[in-house]
């Protein structure tokens, strides 16, 4: 959200998709300028685009329905995909003698996006044929809309199987099973047609046009100041770090030490915060782990474990308030906490216009407290894919930037800053890699025999396909 919730809100209404060709044409014209001016994306490259063109051809002839399952490292992904489909795809198809009459997709988006991005964004998504989903519970209107559009919509579908951005160019979060389920629903709905159903993996990676080391160091210095961390002084022999030049081993070591020092300093501050103010809410083992994070002596050896302990702690603080039992993956737990918070903020059980002043005030307090507890869950969301080894394993400028931007989001959330735009460190090119389609229709018999296993198997195959497209 772009604001702090202090008052109870009416129920979250389903935003009906309503494709508007005039809005689409306007967005299509403006998108290249927005990518360059606002997002600093100079180029969108497409690899294996002929596979996508052939699928569109089969879609237009009624032979295929398909869903583009895309990697989601950045909030820029949907706009880059739109640029690929609206601009590059028709040109690629034309080279093969294929004419794509309506290069567009219906897309699935998180119902929470219009809450923090604003109502105009929700309107625009609906006008472009997008359909929302509430991730934390059984969203019957959202699921019905996805199923209807997949089987009968005017365009193919697109959705992110990771469920949200993970901030890593070269790591994929565990996939949610919903994409596979959508595929099998569509296969069921088109059984009487001569139509095949596919899930198409799409890899996305960002590369800086020129390594923006200067901007990266400036952001690092800003975050150090915000967190109260004083880094060690630079060695007297350290060469000046310049944009576009590879780091020397000495520069690499110094920059990594500063990044690691900032991360550990922030981790210590959060550990102290939770152990001081929330220890009474935690299981004894978890409280002991927070109170003694470096018993092994060398904190660099257990930083990943300490981070996971912290994330578990933050989730338990939120879960206890909402009276939820911790179960499932970290992502599953985040979704349940989010839904519980929304149930207290967006009230289906109240007619707000009929409330007395006292009833209104009590409902406002519940909504405000729920929003405050959701803060702990949002903190966890920033770190779902963090391993603690990402930069050390391969200290590229992209990995440095990924980690710094995650720290920026965390510090902004701690500061209560919900309005600042994420820093753009330098111009980028985006590499889109179209994978080989996964045929859902060929798995229909397996689905009828064991639905859970078929969904799991398809999800695993999709995860493997997306993993294989990461260029390291």
State the secondary-structure class: alpha/beta
Proportion of β residues?
5-15%
Q: Enumerate how many helices there are, as a single number.
A: 17
Number of beta-strand segments: 8
What's the gyration radius in Å?
A: 24 Å
String of helices and strands:
HEHEHEHHEHEHEHHHHHHHHEEHH
Q: Ends: how far apart?
A: 34 Å
Q: Report helical residue fraction.
A: 40-55%
Outline, from the CA principal axes? globular
Give the rounded overall mean pLDDT.
92
Largest sheet: 8 strands, mixed
Give the uncertain stretches in residue-range form: 296-300
Task: Write the SSE topology.
Layout: H1 21-37, E1 41-47, H2 49-60, E2 64-70, H3 77-95, E3 106-110, H4 113-117, H5 119-127, E4 131-133, H6 140-152, E5 157-159, H7 178-189, E6 196-208, H8 213-227, H9 249-278, H10 284-291, H11 299-322, H12 330-345, H13 357-381, H14 390-393, H15 397-415, E7 428-434, E8 438-439, H16 444-449, H17 451-468
Parallel strand pairs: 1-7, 2-5, 2-6, 3-4, 3-5
Antiparallel strand pairs: 6-7, 6-8
